[in-house]
Specification:
alpha/beta, 37% helix
């Protein structure tokens, strides 16, 4: 038999939303309601007849409600295989009545943790009886219906109305799958809290991650790949995934990836001067800070006007109309901003293919967290690159110290280089990138490409010279040879910031001194593969 008529339902929910409407629908079909504590009270207050679980089991709720449903009269009624003669005989011998429907949602463990409750309260919000009932009912889905999400009440009621108070096997299978996913996510949240918050582990022996699908995407990086967006079931920073999309078609896999790269970089400038980041293929192609957002956009765009076409723009403050108009002068895939004024929204509204994302607060660039990458047969997990460059961490290693402006440009270039794929070289001058070399197999080529881009930008803008003249250059890792540094000298850089640590540091420092450069070591590397 695929259809399973319902005669008795057990309801025990933490989230009471919709439970009265569901109880009313069940009662309309003559289904006996069995319930506990607050759920029973809510149903009775609505005028429904409810049987207490303690009446079913013959035992009162005890130990502050910790023990109420953990009983053979409950789990026997859930787990009994209805068409198994031995099970039927056991039910008759022990007067165990069948329970055909279980409606359970669990103690609000994650919400309790999120509001900063103390350890004792967190522990008390670990549900034991609820997951046990869920698992029993889900295991026996051939005969029992399990519902764990209030969003599914309407579908349950519709199924009962259409099938004379019965549910189909297909419906029960879907519910069982969702139920086991719910208990797995719940246990994952508890395991994460114990491992990370309670025990302070960085890499626990078992990594208990849990994510919920937010949406399926049109395709992945390429049309032959499928893709979906998942959100963490646990605490997570707000980002592109939580942003409000005001217009445009749905984001693609690449849109999400690129927009995230742009937001993570612009978040480095939260609280700073107006800053604009332009990203293409997850690499910044122009970054600038200025007195106004429009000036920052113009400076960022000028760095690489070719790559900016079809790119992603992120800003660190409310987007204004003037900047919005400048952005729409070329095709732009996505714009991400904490907010946008009415004029900016109106400007973008005329560009139906442009996606405008409002992120609210920018994510904290210094937040902790884990980065996960799949490899064949496993996962690579590391802590986020949230390293901050403190002033006292900088070490001047050349005869000449950088001027205040050179030092400011060094720090700016270093911040951008942190978000450029390795090998990364970034030239910056007066708070704007002059040239960016990304993803090359050797540092010398990155330095040359960045310098070439700067020359190309100067020609397109009819400048008298490229902005690498008098610039600072950042390298995400040490210069293994002096050749990369000499390429920067040839491009016109006057200051260098790099981690240091090469066995040839002395050779590189000597080359910098000979060229009259100022160079500082950070002691920190920023590889991004």
């Amino acid at each position: 038999m695929t259809d399973s008529p319902l005669a008795r339902a057990l309801l025990s929910v933490s989230d009471k939303s919709g439970i009265v409407d569901l109880g009313t629908a069940l009662a309309r079909h003559g289904i006996e309601l069995v319930s506990t504590g607050g759920t029973a009270t809510a149903l009775r207050d609505a005028g429904l007849t409810v049987r207490d679980v303690s009446d079913l089991t013959g035992f009162p709720e005890m130990m502050d409600g910790r023990v109420k449903t953990l009983h053979p009269m409950v789990h026997g009624g859930l787990l009994a295989v209805r068409d198994n003669p031995e099970h039927a005989a056991a039910m008759t011998e022990h007067s165990i009545g069948a329970i055909d429907l279980v409606v359970v949602n669990l103690y609000p463990f994650a919400q309790t943790v999120a509001r900063g409750a103390g350890r004792d309260e967190v522990i008390e919000n670990i549900d034991i009886g609820g997951p046990s009932m869920v698992r029993s009912a889900a295991k026996n889905h051939a005969h029992v219906t399990i519902v764990t999400d209030p969003a599914d009440y309407a579908e349950l009621i519709e199924a009962l109305d259409a099938n004379n108070a019965a549910t189909s096997l297909a419906f029960r299978k879907r519910c069982a799958a969702k139920a086991f996913a719910a208990t797995a996510a719940y246990d994952s949240a508890i395991a994460q809290w114990f491992a990370f918050a309670d025990q302070g582990e960085r890499f626990p022996q078992t990594l208990p991650l849990s994510f919920k699908r937010a949406e399926e995407l049109r395709y992945g990086e390429n049309p032959h790949q499928s893709a979906a967006l998942y959100l963490s079931n646990g605490p997570a920073a707000r980002g592109i995934a939580q942003s409000e999309q005001l217009q445009g078609k749905a984001l693609s896999y690449n849109n999400y990836n690129d927009a995230d790269a742009a937001l993570e970089l612009v978040a480095e400038f939260a609280g700073g001067p107006p800053t604009v980041v332009i990203v293409k293929h997850a690499n910044p192609c122009g970054v600038a800070s200025a007195d106004t957002l429009i000036d920052a956009y113009k400076a960022a765009f000028a760095c690489d006007t070719v790559s900016a076409f079809g790119g992603i723009v992120a800003v660190n403050r409310t987007l204004d109309g003037e900047t919005a108009r400048a952005i729409t002068e070329i095709f732009t895939e996505v714009v991400a901003a904490p907010d946008a004024d009415d004029e900016a929204r109106a400007v973008f509204a005329a560009k139906k293919n442009l996606r405008l994302l409002l992120t609210g607060d920018l994510p904290d660039a210094t937040r902790p967290g884990l980065m996960v990458k799949t490899i064949a047969g496993g996962l690579l997990v590391q802590s986020r690159d949230n390293g901050v460059l403190a002033d006292d961490a900088l070490k001047v290693v050349t005869k000449r110290a950088p001027t205040p402006q050179e030092l400011a440009d060094c720090r700016f270039a270093w911040t951008v280089a942190k978000h450029v794929k390795s090998n990364a070289i970034v030239y910056a001058k007066d708070g704007a990138t002059a040239g960016i070399g990304a993803g090359q197999m050797n540092r010398l080529e990155s330095a040359r490409i960045a310098a070439w881009k700067a020359k190309d930008a100067a020609e397109k803008a009819s400048w008298s010279e490229p902005r690498t003249i008098g610039s600072a250059v950042a390298s995400d890792a040490f210069f293994p040879f002096a050749d990369g540094l000499l390429a920067a000298v040839e491009a016109g850089a006057t200051a260098v910031i790099q981690p240091g640590g090469s066995i040839r540091d002395d050779e590189v420092i000597a080359a910098a001194d000979e060229a009259g450069l100022a160079m500082v070591f950070t002691g920190m590397r920023h590889f991004r593969h």
